[in-house]
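[Meeting: bench + compute handoff]

Bench side (C.D.) handed over the final construct sequence. Compute side (W.E.) agreed to return the predicted structure before the next meeting so the bench team could plan truncations. Sequence as handed over:
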Amino acid sequence: MRKGEKLIERLLLAAAAISILTTAGIIWVLLSESIGFFSKVSIWDFLTDTQWTPLFADKHFGILPLLTGTLLTTVIAIVVALPVGLTVAIYLNEYAPRRFRKVIKPLLEILAAVPTVVYGYFALTVVTPFLQKIIPGLSGFNALSPGIVMGIMIIPLISSLSEDALYAVPKSLREASYGMGATRFQTSFRVLVPAASSGIIVSVILAISRAVGETMIVAIAAGQQPRLTLDPTVPIETITTYIVQVSMGDVARGTLEYQTIFAAGITLFVFTLLLNNLSLRIKKRLRQKYE
């Protein structure tokens, strides 16, 4: 019995070590290539320059246009996904019959399994032509269409995790609310949502991280024109789109232009890491508040 336990312990240790080593390897690759880039381009110019044209004759290496494009599509996605996902979670948890919940929740989560390239073509061939009928002058490539489709893509993430958080709220809170004369609607939004706020906020932040790192939807439907703008109707370029563009093989390995994808990659890595740490801190604080 002890030999079996030791074997399981070693297997678990090996699995944990593989995860740590993989993360360390990713960080090492990003840092090793980024150091070469920042030895030629100052970090100040990288963070403050408003132009990103490393593949042009007049080279500029300001990450702000790519970062703005990434944040623009992410904000649009969250604006679409948050109200819909939270509403679905509340309905499934409080209003839907148990049999309906067991059927609809797995079907909803199937949306998360659809390849993102399919979402990208859906944004380009269906959503964009539809929006062009509503918004005159909307470009064929824009930030609005992929943002909306990304929002549809991350709805299952928000709804599923939020529903789990609502389901974990003790029944005593529901019963106390009903005992005070509250309606089901009042109980849902004034009791259950605040009590499950830590899980809901974490689901939103994880959805934001998912949208920030999305590649294929924005690569297909957003265009490849880095610009510092908050206008969702014009073509933009995100960090992931640029990485895909340069990784196609047109840029020689080892050049400054090639190293820009690692500088962009480490920016994206740091941004996502900050979001994940923020979610953990918020979750910890809200748990302490309601305990």
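W.E. noted at the follow-up: The two ends are 40 Å apart (CA to CA). C.D. will use this when planning the next construct.
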